[in-house]
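We close this part of the discussion by returning to an individual protein. The sequence in question and its C-alpha cells are set out directly beneath this paragraph:
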Amino acid sequence: MKYLLFISALFVCAWQGCTMNINKNINGYNANGKPHGKWVYLINNKPQSYGRYRDGAPVGTWLIFNTDGSKCVKKRYFRYKIREKWYHKNGNIEAKGWSKLVLDDPVEINYFWEGKWKFFDEKGRLEKISMYVKGEESKILKQKKVRANE
C-alpha cells in the first residue's frame, strides 16, 4: 500500500512538473526581447496559430486555423522561402506554392508569393497553375476549361 501511494505521489509530482515546464516554454523571449521557442496564438481560448520562433523569426512548420477550428494555412519556413498550403473549409488543398522573403522595408518582414502556384477546387481538382513575381500574378500557365453545365 505504501508503495502504491508513493508511486501515485511521484506520478502527480511528475505530471505537475511536466505541465509547468510546458507552460513555461511557450511564448518565450530571448535575451534581446525577441520571440523565441514554441508559440501559440489564441483567440477565445482556441488556437489561432502555432509554431516556433528563432530570434524573432518564424522557423519550421506553422499552422494557422479558421475561427471554426479548421486548418486554414500550413507554412514551412526555410531560410528565405516559405512553402505554403492553403485549405478549403472541407480540408482539401485550395492553393500551394512558395513565398519569398523580400527585405525592402527595414521595419517589416515581407513575404510575397513567388514562382509557380497551383490552385484547386473544393473537390481537390486542379483548376489553375500561375506564375507569381513579388506577389503579382505574371502569367497563367494552365487553366481548367469551364463547361457550360458546371
In short: Confidence is low (pLDDT under 50) at residues 1-23. The CA atoms of residues 48 and 67 lie 7 Å apart. The first helix runs from residue 2 to 24. The beta strands are 28-29, 35-43, 46-54, 57-65, 71-77, 81-87, 93-102, 110-120, 126-133, 136-143.
